[in-house]
Known about the structure:
This protein is an alpha/beta fold. It has helices at residues 2-9, 12-25, 42-49, 63-73, 112-119, 145-150, 163-169; strands spanning 32-36, 54-58, 79-82, 95-99, 123-130, 133-141, 174-176, 189-195, 203-211, 216-230, 233-236, 248-259, 264-272, 280-289, 292-300. It is 20% helix and 37% strand. The protein is elongated and about 65 Å long.
Amino acid sequence: MIEFQRKIMGDPVRNKALAEALKHVIVPGKSIVADIGSGTGFLSFLASKLGAKHCYLYEYSGALELSKKIAKENGIKNCTFIKKHSMHVKNPVQADVVISETLGNFALEEHMLETLMDAKRFLKPGGALIPSSLRQFVCPVIAPRLWKEINVWKDIPFDLRWTAAEEMTLQNMYVKTVRPEELLSYGTQEWDRMDFQKKEKSIREATVRWTVAGDTAVYGFALFWECELLPGITLSTSPTKPATHWGQIFLPVGNPLKFQQSDEMQLTLRSDTRLKTGVILRWGIRQTRGGRTVAEQSLDMGKGLLHL
């Protein structure tokens, strides 16, 4: 647990953006803050130093005990520590600011969407919800490095076949550092957008299309996101932006696809982060040439899980 907290707290890009957002909304001596999934308490402690009247920390893990020690060490006394998942809190204290940093490498993998939809119960009318919105992007990966890196099965000696393991391996998402030069230069597209002030669904689905400008191979797709904390204050996992502790998501294809100039590439993405589901991603690729389908693949994380 401490390794995860060490990792996120060692991310200056993340910390600076969150601090800047709090500076914009804390009214000294007046603001009540609800910190959802408070971890070490960093956000509440920042809010306290900015003059917040009181902070309520909601955290169900052992990190809550650590945050109590940190508060004591820093002489921070205007905090209430609540060892519960926020969704299990009844009749919560109403806050002027609700903040929750539960972003994942795949943005929604930690049930950020479901947490924020519920966390609006904690917010006074007209209060500030941080983050406020999220955009998700996708881009074809045209270099073989990542595909070869995860598909080790073809390189195992001893005269054994590993087809079943290979198929399962390729039906998963992988956290990787994607290099800008490995992406289709004109290929980044937004595939999803959500406004946390509104009611958003846990099942997200979209289809994006590309017309290929020249002969190229496609080995998978990179997913990354941009999260608006407040207007003008954002965090991004784009390979072209300053690096953070988050990586990009690599979705492999089942077999590399070779495209010719003017071919059409279609990708359908579907994510399901309902609490009863966990996190499931599905992606389907279709290659057409002159209006005729020449290749089609369908991949599903549900088929890539090894149940122990």
